[in-house]
Write a structure and sequence with these properties.
single chain, about 425 residues, alpha+beta, 2 domains, 4 helices
């Protein structure tokens, strides 16, 4: 038994010496300084094993960073093109409403549950200095309808981002008019935007835009031209374009009352010549379309101090119909004042907002005023949160007050 054991031990020692000499050139190439002395073959093998373990650990970390897995049954999505990074993301908002109808955006006075937003999109970037995004909406609008009966594209664009101060974006995306509108809906402090901002903003359009940041991102700008016919409409109503621009900046930021503080301001405007463009019915146009000239301007400012945020904004749009429908030139405007405060830091937030919208200053008693009292519970920031809003709306022409309760749960993934 002792002889067999000694023989096996000798064979293993011989094999290790042979393996050490066979791998010696490769190990020497990896780390020549490790073998500058007359170290033994055993020491060389130990060093090689250490090197291999390090490579294996780095390989595991790299696979984890890339989202790769050796677990059976796990599917890995890979880009078919040459994108250096590809991201699949989405948002789901499940909403409930109780009480009166509220403002004209809501479908009816019936209590209901529905999907406010259900979006899924893919975005990516290329090392040549381009990024892109395609996103679809699978839920219906605020007014309601058969949820899931149809889907539509929200964003679909290509952006050249080689210069931070001059990005060039082409496709369909948000137009830079109205601070509340360009702020992502899932990141707003209330469940719904104000009525006036919804009515007067230009939503998403198809076109081209140049924008960027300068002076260490203290000043931002965006300007472009679009068809002006709305989202997912590939035709232009005439040979004219919608021209729009926005500039915003941070005049001051620092510390106030031992808390971080920031003051931001912005201004935007647009002009358009239309031929039967669809507009909101609140303007009283025949067939919900408008033909003529439109000009819009807006100003906004935001102030942040610790847990406190204050927003205010004013938009005004002048309509000059060429066919006298609905009437001669008229102006529509809206403004709001909003305050929010974190009762519990980064977790429980209270919101108070007042807004007013006048669709036609040529007519009397046609303004809608609303108060919103809200509470937000941020479990994981905006990625997982619940919102509770109470809306008190005063419709035009002394109509009955509207009381509405909105509950929303939101997940961003």
């Amino acid at each position: 038994m002792s002889t067999k054991h000694d023989t096996a031990f000798a064979l293993r020692a011989t094999f290790r010496r042979f393996l050490g000499w066979a791998l010696f050139p490769a190990v020497l190439a990896l780390n020549p300084s490790a073998f500058a002395d007359e170290a033994s073959i055993e020491a060389r093998l130990n060093a090689l094993e250490s090197q291999l373990k390090t490579v294996q650990a780095e390989n595991l970390q790299l696979r984890q960073a890339l989202g790769l897995s050796d677990t059976p049954g796990v599917a890995v999505a890979k880009p078919a093109g040459k994108a250096s990074a590809l991201t699949v993301a989405g948002i789901l908002q499940v909403q409930a409403e109780f009480g009166d109808k509220g403002d004209p955006r809501f479908g009816s006075a019936n209590d209901r549950f529905y999907l406010r937003r259900a979006r899924l999109g893919v975005s990516g970037r290329l090392i040549e200095g381009f990024d892109f995004k395609v996103e679809g909406e699978f839920a219906n609008s605020l007014a309601g309808g058969a949820t899931g009966a149809s889907s539509s594209m929200t964003d679909g664009y290509i952006n050249w981002n080689h210069f931070n101060w001059a990005n060039v974006k082409v496709g369909q995306f948000k137009t830079p008019f109205g601070y509340e509108f360009i702020t992502s809906a899932p990141k707003l402090f209330t469940a719904e935007r104000t009525l006036g901002m919804d009515m007067l903003s230009l939503k998403r359009q198809i076109g081209v835009q140049v924008g960027g940041d300068v002076f260490a991102k203290r000043l931002s700008y965006a300007g472009g031209l679009f068809n002006g016919t709305g989202a997912n409409v590939s035709v232009n109503d005439n040979g004219k374009f919608l021209y729009i621009g926005r500039v915003s900046g941070v005049p001051w930021q620092g510390t106030l009352l031992a808390q971080t503080a920031r003051w931001s301001v912005g201004a935007d405007g647009y002009t358009s010549i239309d031929n039967g463009v669809s507009v909101a019915p609140a303007f009283g146009t025949t067939g919900k379309s408008f033909t003529g000239k439109r000009k819009g301007v807006g100003v906004d400012t935001q102030f942040h101090l610790g847990r406190l945020d204050l927003w205010t904004e004013y938009l005004s749009v002048q309509f000059d119909p060429s066919n006298q429908v609905p009437a001669a030139r008229f102006t529509s405007d809206a403004w709001y004042l909003q305050g929010s405060y974190f009762i519990l830091p980064k977790t429980l937030q209270g919101v108070v907002r007042y807004d007013t919208f006048t669709p036609n200053h040529s007519l009397s008693a046609n303004s809608t005023d609303s108060w919103t009292l809200g509470m937000n519970w941020l479990i994981k920031g905006d990625d997982l949160k619940f919102q509770l809003d109470y809306l008190l709306t005063n419709p035009p022409a002394d109509a009955a007050q509207q009381h509405k309760l909105i509950l929303r749960s939101q997940v961003i993934f």
